[in-house]
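Because discrete structure vocabularies remain unfamiliar, we first show an illustrative case, written as a sequence plus integers encoding its fold.
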Amino acid sequence: ALTYYEQAKQMQQSFVDSRPTTDDLRALGNTWNAIGYTERQLDSRTAALEAFEEALALRRRTVAESQSWQDKRRVANTLMNIGLMHSATGDFAEAKATFMEAQSLREDLLKREPNKQIAEDHARGAYNLANLILDWTESEDRDLSDADYEEAVRNLEQAVGRFRDLIEGQTTANVSNRHRYAISLRLLGDLYRDLDDARAAYEQARDTMHALMVQNPQVPSYALQLAYLYIALGGVDFDEEAYPSMLQHYDSAMEHLEPLSDSDPSAELMLAVALREHARAKLALKQAGAMDDVRRAMELLKAIRERHPHLREKCDIELDDAQQIIDEAGGC
């Protein structure tokens, strides 16, 4: 693909170097943008960033001549691509500035030329901006500040609202938008400090993800993400001491994780967590079998720890929690 794009670029550059038309500028900008996408897929981050910056310069020149909403949309999308590359290389400040410029352009376009394409771009931009804030915080190993919390929540709520409008009344179309809608809701549930708000977000995400899984059984990641949502709902139940509901949610999580656990270490790790929390609910309800669940969870965690060194730290944390349950139960 790169060879083809390079040939096209050279031909288009010759037109731009002479007496370029708006179409010539647009075509060369599109080619540079395609080169950027290809380099990004090859994980050539520096080359991808350079290509996107070339595309941006050409697309700005195109907008100066055409003033069309389509060309302005392309500028905003290229800015978002540049921001993603800055984020991938850890330059979060530059990424955020670029994302915000892209979103500002989209907001202006939505006022002047409202349509589904721009609304979808804006929803994805809000989702990306929220994730950027969370990634930035995690990279610095610090707690989310109140200002960052409010900004992340605001962007996710904006994304949820726009995705909801885009998918409303559709049951099978726009799988990508429905998936992003569910993930945005899940992230909101993770962030919300009010348990009722968190539960509502998780439940909406669960219902959407369940529909996606049923309609797309060939995509195992939907079942994995659905299991995460049952685990998250079980966590809310635990905080509210709603132990019968907690038990049901972990039962549902394990039902989806068992078929995936043999081939996916992340599913196996989640299964171990679900088993451990299932035991916690059983203990609270004074039901038999709790220690069997904990022991199986610990066996899984020890096995994962040996087979997958990159998961050792996570396994150690989960093992400590499992051991604490045993200690609190009197070492049964």
User: Anything to note?
Assistant: The radius of gyration is 24 Å. The chain has a mean pLDDT of 94.
